[in-house]
Amino acid sequence: MNLTMIGTGYVGLVSGAGLADFGMNVICVDKEEQRIRKLLTGHIPFYEPGLEELVTRNVKNGRLTFTTDLRMAVKRSLVIFIAVGTPDNGRGETDLSQVKEVAGDLSQLIDDYKVVVMKSTVPVGTNRWIKEAIQKSLRKNISVDVVSNPEFLREGSAIEDFMRPNRVVLGSDNVNALAILKDIYRSLYLIETPFVLTNLETAELIKYASNAFLATKISFINEVANLCEKVGADVHQVAKAMGLDKRIGPKFLHPGPGFGGSCFPKDTAAFAHLGEATGSPLRIVESVISVNTEQRTKMIEKIETGLGSIAEKTIGVLGLSFKPNTDDVRESPALDIVRSLLEKGAEIKAYDPAGIEEFKRIFGDQKICYCRDAYSVAKGAHALVILTEWNEFRNLDLQKITTLLAQPVIFDLRNIYDPAKTAELGLTHIGVGRGA
Ligand SMILES: NC(=O)c1ccc[n+]([C@@H]2O[C@H](COP(=O)([O-])OP(=O)(O)OC[C@H]3O[C@@H](n4cnc5c(N)ncnc54)[C@H](O)[C@@H]3O)[C@@H](O)[C@H]2O)c1
Question: What is the distance in A from the centroid of ligand 1 to the CA of 328?
Fold first, then answer.
């Protein structure tokens, strides 16, 4: 079966390559010429473990191609996936301009039956609007079906998540369209992946409710961590014991500087906005968002209190991406924390295994000295701040770090080190929620 994937970002490229691996012929389309040029010459435009190999394999076997020519791709495909960006518009609502542009293009280009599949995260009602918008401009005898197929992959483990998802959600009013999608995903049927077949609105809502619930766990444990610091308790033991209860589960109970990334912040904001707009407020989600914002401020206060003052101090930052194994810095806690430290007069040295180039795009080189590894960051710094729990930060030679630092202080905002062990080295360890 021939498919088009519109958008070659984290979701579009992983899904396009994944579907090619499932045996489909996939034409990936992007409007950014430079991105397509890179892909045509074998360069992956962002960092995602295993993606280069997956793309190369499927390009070689002829099932994966790249183009900017949407007309040609649509003509050749029965099914057209949309995986363009749906960022926040700055007011907590979803900016649907990329989706609307694609819908406009498709309504001009479609000239026989197609199934349009929405992978982008879009507010409830968007898919129905798209179906009507495209259908309105088609000739009378042509029809289009729309399927909502929200994507749940996580950057950093995107391929595994796409190849072995916990579930596949398909929303549509049309059984024929659902049957075509089930056929596309038949490799997942074979490994007994649960499929949730539902209507458009339910599928759209499932995505937001899932992300909001995960974000709730994070904000919840961050508040508990802050309380632990006040009462002399250890949030790690609290989270561990909570997680052993199967009704709660251990995932997403790691305290830190708050959630970031291209999804949770904008999706929780859009979900809260939907609640408000429909007169059914989502008060828990609203609190989750404000707790998350406050958590970043609390981390800056923690550093300020720990150091006495920040002005003219050199602060070493380890980790810029919003989580390990990605170069994505969108809404990364590092953005707010570094910006605030700079405003307070700090000199910043920083290192991230993959995110430096993306960080530079936002901050430029100004005032930030980007280093080649963690030890270069530590050299001469008045404190080390761990912001992302990359594996290579988990096993640092702390003895060496202690001697390199001008002041032996580590703000371990991901709690990756044991305070008792760091204390043995004479390293002052300031974590999150470790009041015990
Ligand atoms: N990144 C994630 O981890 C993740 C996970 C699940 C769901 N999502 C959702 O998936 C969607 C895509 O996210 P992403 O992170 O891959 O976005 P992205 O910004 O990385 O990529 C979007 C791509 O779409 C292209 N594009 C925009 N308009 C286009 C057009 N008219 N024609 C062709 N290409 C066009 C852009 O050039 C870009 O390459 C969003 O709705 C997001 O919320 C993302």
Answer: 13
pLDDT by residue (tens digit) across 193-232?
999 999 999 999 999 999 999 999 999 999 999 999 999 9
| Nearest partner of 171 among 122, 214, 242, 243, judged by Cα | 122
Q: What is the pTM of this model?
A: 0.96
Strands in 2-6's sheet, in edge-to-edge order, are 64-67, 25-29, 2-6, 79-82, 114-118, 144-148, 168-171, 195-198
Domain boundary (135, 167, 198) is at 198
Q: Are residues 331 and 390 in the same domain?
A: yes
Same domain, yes or no, for 128 and 232?
A: no
List all residues 6 or more positions away from 125 whose beta carbon is below 8 Å from its beta carbon: 201, 204
- From ligand 1's centre to the CA of 425, what distance in Å? 46
Domain that holds residue 352: 212-430
Q: Which of 28, 228, 263, 371 is catalytic?
A: 263
Mutate to test the pocket of ligand 1, among 4, 5, 11, 71 (most ligand atoms within 8 A of CB): 11
pLDDT, one tens digit per residue, over 351-362 is: 999 999 999 999
pLDDT in tens, 255-290: 999 999 999 999 999 999 999 999 999 999 999 999
Tell whether 244 and 175 lie within a shared domain: no
Q: How many CB atoms lie within 10 A of CB 207?
A: 23
Confirm or reject: Cβ of 121 under 6 Å from ligand 1: yes
| Tokens 């007011």 belong to residue | 91
269 and 322 both lie in a single domain: yes
Write the CATH number for 359: 3.40.50.720
* Structure-block tokens of residue 401: 């770090």
